[in-house]
């Protein structure tokens, strides 16, 4: 590709609307342009990245034995209504009416359509296992589209679905996809962490996410530096070992809890300030309705409830926070003053760490009143004590009890054992060996194609611009002709451009009539892994300067060694 024939509108200024590094650089490098909220055009350099990622994904999915399909993105609304997911997705679903006034939606994901397709076209266990995938646009009216192409309302996903006759088959299909995902992210050059992920409160099935660590990531996960265990905070279990410290108060163990007046102090911070204590000495009481029953969840004031874990400990399919009426009914006090002492008619579920606080402060179930000097084991008796709080930094690892680190991550992929969730609902069954009808055991597997590009920019960019891993760079090599007005330089540039192309390299020739300084700047901004400079060195002694974007390394190379040298560099990157 010649720069003069492409459309790479680089910008000197930092666009005002962009906060994230990847957003700024992809706009400045002319990879993307915004059309509307969460909707972007990909220009030639940007689309090359998307195509390269898609090609890697396709190769690895094919290698893993998956077959590619292309399913419609435009659906009659019934598809989501019949599966009950119109409600689940809610306002995320983009809806429209067609000319016959029929309700339609733009597909946010494809479980329903693929399950119905297999239901209607596969009949026997002999046709299994089957894994189908597609690379296709999804539409989600995200609450907060942001950070450029990291979270958009229209994005390209690789989604795959496996169909098996039984749980062993699912395990194999899942492992095949897991392996393919590792190869995909390796080839894309990403540093990733595989974290255990939430698969729904009562689901016994497995789910893992592929995360790229980044401070701007929307997900949080804990990772143990000692044994490597990692889990999304939505799921993360906390070790019960010595790392989970007890908190002791400074009061004398007295006769019992005492009431103190805390007018208007409802939040943990307000009460802590009012009573001159620390949040970790307080017991926070949150009321929920679990499968119709009231439940009080206790966590330390400096902790948060993890509702997924709470639902599991309670054994509830559905867990929703209680509303103000429910809280007043159960506690007899307005919201903000609930506490476990003397609380009846409700199951009390305490986090383990609550039981280790002494001389604690908690709500008195009375307006504007709290209790001090509370001793958990003495003053109230929980129905259950378990791990129900969200993990925080330095919490002990559930496997080895070493302190775990808490990090932000960008979710680039997700593998999920679905079981019969969709096949059951949609009546997707096959005939087993004995001629009985059985629902397919399914798995689903997603990768965000655009998000991989943004995550790569986010993690590898430096102060000069993007630094692409060679596998997904818009071009592997940029040949910079420093003065197109000089025939010797223009000819030599053209020659090496053609040679390198012929040698299988993906090359961009910067043949613009522009100053050398802006060519260097633009090449660095675009982040091509290797630059070949055709300038003074060539005029002097026929040599080409080769520069490595990532390390800044440079050396003079003779024309006949150029292709070999660049292949070596790319190999090493
Ligand atoms: P998130 O929690 O980030 O919203 P999700 O759990 O909704 O993601 P999935 O439904 O599992 O995502 O989709 C599979 C993959 O598609 C994700 O791992 C992610 O890489 C990508 N993805 C999801 N939503 C978006 C989006 N709005 N913009 C870009 N990529 C997305
Ligand atoms: Mg989402």
Account of the 3D structure:
The chain is α+β, with helices and mostly antiparallel strands and 573 residues long. It folds into three domains: 15-73 and 106-212 and 407-457, BirA Bifunctional Protein, domain 2 (2-Layer Sandwich), CATH 3.30.930; 243-386, YbaK protein (Alpha-Beta Complex); 475-572, Anticodon-binding domain (Rossmann fold), CATH 3.40.50.800. It is 28% helix and 28% strand. It is built from 16 helices and 29 strands. The strands form six sheets. Strands 3, 7, 8, 9, 10, 11, 12, 21 and 24 form a nine-stranded mixed beta sheet that branches. Strands 13, 14, 15, 16, 17, 18, 19 and 20 form an eight-stranded mixed beta sheet that branches. A hairpin with a 5-residue loop joins strand 22 and strand 23 (437-439). It is globular and about 95 Å long. The structure holds adenosine-5'-triphosphate and magnesium ion.
Summarize the structure.
By secondary structure, the protein is α+β, with helices and mostly antiparallel strands. It is 28% helix and 28% strand. A hairpin with a 5-residue loop joins strand 5 and strand 6.
Backbone structural class: alpha+beta
Range of helix content: 25-40%
Count of discrete domains: 3
In CATH, what is the homologous superfamily of the largest domain? Bira Bifunctional Protein, Domain 2
CATH topology of the largest domain: BirA Bifunctional Protein, domain 2
Number of helices in the DSSP assignment: 16
Globular, elongated, flat, extended or rod-shaped: what is the shape? globular
> Could you describe the largest sheet, including whether it forms a barrel?
9 strands, mixed
Average of the residue pLDDT scores:
95
What is the CATH architecture annotation of the largest domain? 2-Layer Sandwich
Detail the poorly predicted runs.
none
Radius of gyration: 29 Å
Strand content: 25-35%
Alpha carbon gap, first and last residue: 23 Å
Bound molecules: adenosine-5'-triphosphate, magnesium ion
The CATH C-level name of the largest domain is Alpha Beta
Number of strand elements: 29
């Amino acid at each position: 590709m010649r720069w003069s024939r492409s459309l790479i509108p680089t910008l000197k200024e930092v666009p005002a609307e962009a906060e994230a590094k990847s957003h700024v650089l992809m706009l400045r490098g002319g990879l993307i342009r915004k059309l509307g909220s969460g909707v972007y055009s990909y220009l030639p350099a940007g689309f090359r990245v998307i195509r390269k990622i898609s090609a890697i994904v396709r190769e690895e999915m094919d290698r893993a034995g998956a077959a590619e399909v292309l399913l419609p993105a435009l659906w009659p609304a019934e598809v989501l209504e019949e599966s009950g997911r119109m409600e689940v997705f809610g306002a995320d679903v983009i809806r429209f009416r067609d000319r016959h006034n029929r309700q339609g939606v733009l597909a946010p994901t494809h479980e329903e359509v693929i399950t119905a397709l297999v239901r209607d076209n596969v009949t026997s266990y002999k046709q299994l296992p089957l894994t189908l995938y597609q690379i296709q646009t999804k539409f989600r009216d995200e609450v907060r589209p942001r950070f450029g192409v990291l979270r958009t309302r229209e994005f390209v996903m690789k989604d795959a679905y496996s169909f098996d006759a039984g749980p062993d088959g699912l395990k194999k299909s899942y492992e095949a996809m897991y392996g393919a995902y590792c190869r995909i992210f390796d080839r894309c050059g990403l540093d990733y962490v595989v974290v255990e992920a939430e698969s729904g409160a009562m689901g016994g099935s497995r789910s893992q996410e592929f995360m790229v660590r980044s401070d701007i990531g929307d997900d949080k996960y804990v990772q143990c530096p000692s044994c490597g265990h990692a889990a999304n905070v939505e799921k993360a279990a906390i070790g019960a070992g010595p790392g989970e410290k007890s908190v002791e108060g400074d009061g004398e163990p007295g006769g019992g809890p005492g009431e103190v007046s805390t007018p208007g102090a409802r939040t943990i911070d307000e009460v802590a300030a009012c009573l001159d204590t620390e949040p970790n000495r307080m017991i926070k009481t949150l009321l929920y309705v679990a499968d119709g029953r009231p439940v009080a969840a206790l966590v330390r004031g400096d902790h948060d409830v993890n509702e997924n874990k709470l639902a599991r400990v309670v054994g509830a399919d559905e867990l929703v926070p209680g509303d103000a009426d429910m809280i007043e009914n159960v506690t007899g006090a307005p919201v903000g003053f609930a506490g476990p002492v003397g609380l009846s008619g409700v199951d009390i579920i305490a986090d383990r760490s609550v039981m280790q606080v002494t001389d604690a402060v908690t709500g008195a179930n009375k307006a504007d009143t709290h209790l001090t000097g509370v001793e958990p084991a003495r003053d109230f008796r929980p129905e259950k004590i378990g791990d129900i709080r969200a993990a925080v930094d330095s919490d002990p690892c559930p496997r080895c009890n070493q302190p775990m680190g808490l990090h932000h991550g960008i979710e680039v992929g997700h593998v999920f054992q679905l079981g019969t969730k969709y096949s059951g609902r949609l009546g997707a069954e096959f005939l087993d060996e004995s001629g009985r009808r059985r629902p397919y055991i399914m798995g689903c597997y997603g990768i965000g194609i655009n998000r991989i590009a943004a995550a790569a920019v986010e993690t590898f960019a430096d102060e000069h611009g993007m630094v692409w891993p060679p596998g997904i760079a818009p071009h592997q090599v940029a040949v910079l002709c420093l003065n197109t007005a000089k025939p010797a330089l223009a000819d030599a540039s053209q020659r090496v451009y053609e040679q390198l192309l012929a040698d299988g390299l993906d090359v961009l020739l910067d043949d613009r009539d522009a100053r050398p300084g802006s060519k260097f700047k633009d090449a660095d901004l675009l982040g091509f892994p290797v630059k070949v400079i055709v300038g003074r060195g060539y005029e002097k002694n026929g040599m080409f300067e080769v520069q490595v974007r990532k390390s800044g390394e440079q050396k003079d190379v003779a024309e006949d060694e150029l292709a070999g040298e660049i292949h070596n560099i790319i190999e090493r990157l």
